[in-house]
Each structure stands twice: as C-alpha cells, then as structure tokens.
C-alpha cells in the first residue's frame, strides 16, 4: 500500500480563537497522547493551564496568559519532529535554537507532504486535491468565511498579542501559502498544457481524415471517368 500524508492549515489567529472558543465550551485534550521518543511528558515538562476537570468559561485573556498553553504555535508543533528538540523538555537547548529547529522541521515535513490545503482557499484546495490524487468530489467546495472565530471581535492590541504568541505559526503559514499557490499554479499550467496537447492531437487527426476523404474523392472521380471512357 501507498500511504500519503495530507493536512489542512488555517490562519493562525483564526485557528487560535477557534480553539479558545472550543476550550471555553468545555473541550479538553486529556485523551490526546503527547508521546515523544517513546514516553509521555512529565507534569513538570507539560504543566496544566487549569485545575479541575476542564477550563470551561475561561476568558480570552486567561487563555493568552497561560505560558504552557499548547494552543500557542500548535500547527508548527503538530507538523515538526519534536524529538529533534528533546520533545517537551525545554532545557535541552536554548529557546531561540529550539524555535528554529521546530520551524525548519515543520516546513520540511509540509513540503514533503503529497498534499496540503488552506481553509481560506477552499476551491483551490479542492482543485489541488482532485488533481493530485486523480479523484473528483461529488460537489464543489463552498468557501465559508463565517466561523465561530470570525464572530469574535478583538482589538488591534489583542490581534498583535495573538500573533506574537503564535509567531512560529505565522511564519509557517506565510511559507505554506506561498508553497500552496506555487503548487496551484503548477497544476493549472500542467492542465493547460495537457488541454493544448489534446487540441493539437485532435486537429492532427481531423486533418488526416480530411486528407483521406479528399484522396478517396479524387480516386472515385478518376475511376468514374475511366469507366465512362470504356463505355463510350
């Protein structure tokens, strides 16, 4: 079997707000496995942002203030090889070096994926998926920009704070958008070239048929003339 890794990326600010709203309604990641290099992180390596069963009802300010919040730069962390930085042990290397290794790893893994899409480009995402895997969806994707995150009104200062908390995701997303549009343009050019090649083939076949019909017509005329001469 051939296995293909795919993923969908989202604008970091919208994704962060969406996760906050999700957590605010009582969602937790307690069932998620954070196993890295064969073991789970200790409570010292991965402290909890809240006490009790969940973090329901937390304000956006509380959500942003927790230094251990795994919502921060989640897309980079999910796409990178954490074993390169000692998993969740932050004392293995300096923070600046750790961030660079994580970001480089996430970019490389994204680049090597057979397909990835962006939620802000639903139609282009569908097109790339269909062309990559030679499959067609039953109905076209619809671009929905109205989400729970879009209903959250934040001021410019909060926007900048969220971007700062997710600075690795911001850089990854810029890279992903550029790579995504490159792949899209490549597929479009390839499609146009294939369509042009088919048109050329069709014209070639049509010209051959027309030439064959003319030749048949000329032979038929000659045969009729010779036959009439013999009868005369």
From TrEMBL:
Highest taxon listed in the record's lineage: Eukaryota
Molecular-function GO terms, alphabetical: heparan sulfate 6-sulfotransferase activity
Membrane topology: Single-pass type II membrane protein
Keywords attached to this entry: Glycoprotein, Membrane, Signal-anchor, Transferase, Transmembrane, Transmembrane helix
Cellular component GO terms held in the UniProt record: membrane
Catalysed reaction equations from the record: alpha-D-glucosaminyl-[heparan sulfate](n) + 3'-phosphoadenylyl sulfate = 6-sulfo-alpha-D-glucosaminyl-[heparan sulfate](n) + adenosine 3',5'-bisphosphate + H(+)
Top EC class for this record: transferase
Keyword Transmembrane included in the entry's annotation: yes
EC number: 2.8.2.-
Pfam family, one: Sulfotransfer_2
Places the protein is found: Membrane
Keyword Transmembrane in annotation: yes
Stored InterPro entries: Heparan_SO4-6-sulfoTrfase, P-loop_NTPase, Sulfotransferase
Annotated stretches, region: Disordered: 210-232
Signal peptide: none
Family of this protein: Belongs to the sulfotransferase 6 family.
PANTHER family to which the protein is assigned, alphabetical: HEPARAN SULFATE 6-O-SULFOTRANSFERASE 3 (PTHR12812), HEPARAN-SULFATE 6-O-SULFOTRANSFERASE 2 (PTHR12812:SF6)
Purpose of the protein: 6-O-sulfation enzyme which catalyzes the transfer of sulfate from 3'-phosphoadenosine 5'-phosphosulfate (PAPS) to position 6 of the N-sulfoglucosamine residue (GlcNS) of heparan sulfate.
Protein name, entry field: Heparan-sulfate 6-O-sulfotransferase
């Amino acid at each position: 079997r051939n296995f293909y890794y795919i993923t969908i990326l989202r604008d970091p600010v919208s994704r962060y707000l969406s996760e906050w709203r999700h957590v605010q309604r009582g969602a937790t990641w307690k069932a998620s496995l954070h196993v890295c290099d064969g073991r789970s992180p200790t409570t010292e390596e991965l402290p909890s942002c809240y006490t009790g069963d969940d973090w329901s009802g937390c304000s956006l300010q509380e959500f942003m203030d927790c230094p251990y919040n795994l919502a921060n730069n989640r897309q980079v962390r999910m796409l990178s090889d954490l074993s390169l930085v000692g998993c969740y042990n932050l004392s293995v290397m300096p923070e600046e070096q750790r961030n660079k290794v994580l970001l480089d790893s996430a970019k490389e893994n994204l680049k090597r994926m057979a397909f990835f899409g962006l939620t802000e480009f639903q139609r282009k995402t569908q097109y790339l998926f269909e062309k990559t895997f030679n499959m067609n969806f039953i109905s076209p994707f619809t671009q929905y920009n109205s989400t729970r995150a879009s209903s959250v009104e934040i001021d410019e200062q909060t926007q900048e704070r969220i971007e700062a908390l997710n600075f690795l995701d911001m850089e990854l997303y810029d890279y992903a958008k550029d790579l995504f549009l490159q792949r899209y343009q490549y597929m479009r050019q390839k499609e146009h070239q294939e369509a042009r090649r088919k048109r050329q083939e069709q014209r070639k076949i049509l010209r051959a048929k027309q030439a064959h019909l003319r030749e048949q017509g000329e032979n038929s005329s000659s045969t009729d003339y010779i036959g009439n001469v013999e009868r005369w």
